[in-house]
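[#protein-structures] MJ: dropping FAD/FMN-containing dehydrogenase here for a structure pass
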Amino acid sequence: MTIHATPMIVERLAAIVGARHVIGPDGDQEPYLVDWRGRYRGTAEAIVKPASTAEVAGVVKLCAELGFAIVPQGGNTGMCGAATPLNGRPNVVLRLDRMNTIRAISRLGDSIAVDAGCILADVQKAAESADRLFPLSLGAEGSCQIGGNLSTNAGGTAVLRYGTARELTLGIEAVLPDGSMLDLMTSLRKDSTGVDLKQLFIGAEGTLGIITGAVLKLFPRPRQRSVALAKAEDIEAVLDLLALARTELGDRLGAFEVMSRGQVEVIAEHVPHVAIPFALDAPWFVLIELVDTLRGIDLSAEMEAMLASAFERGLIGDALVASSEAQAAALWTIRHSVSEGSKRAGYVVSHDSAVPLEHQAEFVRRVEARIAALRPEARIVMHGHLGDGNIHVLAILPGIAADQRETLAPIVSAINRAVDEETAALGGSISAEHGIGIANKERLNHVTAPREMALLRQVKGLLDPRGLMNPGKVLSD
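AK: finished. structure tokens for FAD/FMN-containing dehydrogenase:
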């Protein structure tokens, strides 16, 4: 198929969305062509910002007619380059910023219908205005968008209690690669009329279609919380602490996050506005949050009793229970600063592994040993959502200049291979919440059974036979 010249695609896109909402090659495209970590950069014939599902459909139909690839992009906060255009193929970056309407809220049905371009924090605020909770919570929640959250099946810090984005979604609206619209915007909690088609698009990273709207689950708002930070001598003690907390506190356990001492040291060194209110004298730090929807229950007393029991059993050496909301927020700020601190510390080779909890200690020890053997100079730090089996293992390589990064490919590949081999051997997943994108597609091939990969390609071929939707992501093409 003949690809028409760039001016024609710009003019025709402008006819759909308005000239103000199309950025051609002569405009400032830079923010849309590079990923958050600055590792992937591409080119685009145009950046287009539709304001409605109908306009998205019009853009997709035009691109299909002219043979242009489409790269859906939300807040562009992803870790794997899934929203970054690639070089070598004419494409259009489709931004959803203008699709930011809260369509409806049902307090009775505990649901909220939103445009895919709504910023996550705005959805949280809208739920709060209805005295409800939308529990998805990420470090990038002030800029990431719901469409991107669903497209990567985002996790975050509340999965232990509420589940991932997949579990928080009741219905979606999507535009398919031919420009037709698929309306699955149901708020039903029960529906056994066949295959749950929305699940095809959640986690697909825009490779099967563009999510334009979603119906999300809401929950009763917690009326109180208690936050604590505890110190532990080894990962086995941390896991025993998790088991104790679940036994004694039940579903009041809202979050159970871990940081290695090295990870907190990185934050202390590189994020000076974050205060570290405790001595870094233990190998592991555990952030625990309890929440309850009832009033009149002393959660701090429950937290202190559990921690006292843990101390008596030798699981923790010390603990700090927040005495105010300000102190609780300060503890969470430390946890949310891991990405910023690590990014400033050097070139980060990060991993998003999840393994069954019974193998978590073995995983931690084995990957640390293998990375240290490969790269003795690497600073190995860890953080993550231990309550749901997801620890992020980071190898930070200091002193790497931007023009040296091409020479890092074999180093990164060797580290990834070591971590992935241990993950697979222990029955885990190489991506718990960040997705595949560009960064992990070759790794996906290495750890996924051939029949499963073949089935994924069959689904892709059925919905997007011309390969126009976000090419080069997830599947190698």
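MJ: nice. The chain is about 35% helix and 20% strand.
AK: one more thing. The chain has a mean pLDDT of 94.
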